[in-house]
Amino acid sequence: MARTVDEVAHARRREEFLDAAQRLIGTKGYEEMSVRDVLDEASASRGAFYHYFGSKQDLLWALIDRTGETLLEMLRSAVEESGTDALARLRGYFKALAEVKLSQRALRNPTLRTWQSDGNVLTRQKVRTDIIERHTPLLAAIVRDGVAQGLFTAPHPEHTGRLLITLIQDLNEELTRLFLAFEAGEARADDVRHTVEAYSSAVQSVLGLPEGSVVIVEPSALLAWFDAASKRNGA
Predict the structure, then answer these.
(1) Do 229 and 107 form a contact (C-beta atoms < 8 A)?
(2) For every residue of the chain, which 3-state class applies, written as one string?
(3) Per residue in 71-89, pLDDT tens?
(4) pTM of the model
(5) Considering just the CA atoms, what is the radius of gyration of the chain in Å?
(6) With the CA atoms of 177, 181, 186 and 188 taken in that order, what torsion angle do they form, in degrees rounded to the nearest 10?
(7) What domains, with CATH codes, occur in the chain?
């Protein structure tokens, strides 16, 4: 019993370090964050930190791994709950991903701006690569099923799955840029709608689907997001 308690406490302490790092990356940026910052945030000793992680970079990789796996499990569940129809499964994936991204953007302003800062270049690139590698198999399986069901036209499902998640990541980065531009009065809601329409059209083209088959982000959710930003800015 004592061993079980120790294992639980050990895992909990590791999670506390990861939670502390996540908060600091959101407020200071990875490059500006020091191990001492993490120790202070987690109320821990240097010895305790190095018991779990060999370096600050190891801490970052562990945080990205935790975040990536949590997101992937949510999306897997959404896909499974969408039934066996491949198009419905793809829509379920997009819907769940959009909900996660839009809920994260509720944090906005300093956190989002810090995320886009030069201090998080390494982190953003690592997250992008991690997401592409994690999500390619799930999307490739959906594409493979869609081809078998006669819904999609894609001779190479594995490569198509990778292309889809790459497009999604590109869109996510573009929406983040546009959101910050919108808050600064340098972009309009139409710019965002047209961007989403273009990427949705690209996905449909890749899969041989007619226009209107899929929407990566629902327009109503997107408009609510930008309307909220507009009200905060007094527009």
Answers:
(1) no
(2) CHHHHHHHHHHHHHHHHHHHHHHHHHHCCCCCCCHHHHHHHHCCCHHHHHHHCCCHHHHHHHHHHHHHHHHHHHHHHHHHCCCCCHHHHHHHHHHHHHHHHHHHCCCCHHHHHHHCCHHHHHHHHHHHHHHHHHHHHHHHHHHHHHHHCCCCCCCCHHHHHHHHHHHHHHHHHHHHHHHHHHHCCCCCHHHHHHHHHHHHHHHHHHHCCCCCCCCCCCHHHHHHHHHHHHHHCCC
(3) 999 999 999 999 999 999 9
(4) 0.83
(5) 20
(6) 80
(7) 1-54 (1.10.10.60), 57-232 (1.10.357)
The backbone torsions φ and ψ at residue 155, rounded to the nearest 5 degrees and listed phi first, read: -70, -20
Q: Which of 186, 184, 192, 185 is nearest to 225 (CA)?
A: 192
pLDDT tens digits for range 4-14: 558 888 899 99
Q: How would residue 100 be classed by pLDDT, with cut points 50, 70 and 90?
A: confident
CA pseudo-torsion sign 32, 34, 36, 42: positive
Residue 51 has pLDDT above 90, yes or no: yes
Question: Does pLDDT of 126 surpass 50?
Answer: yes
Residues in the chain: 235
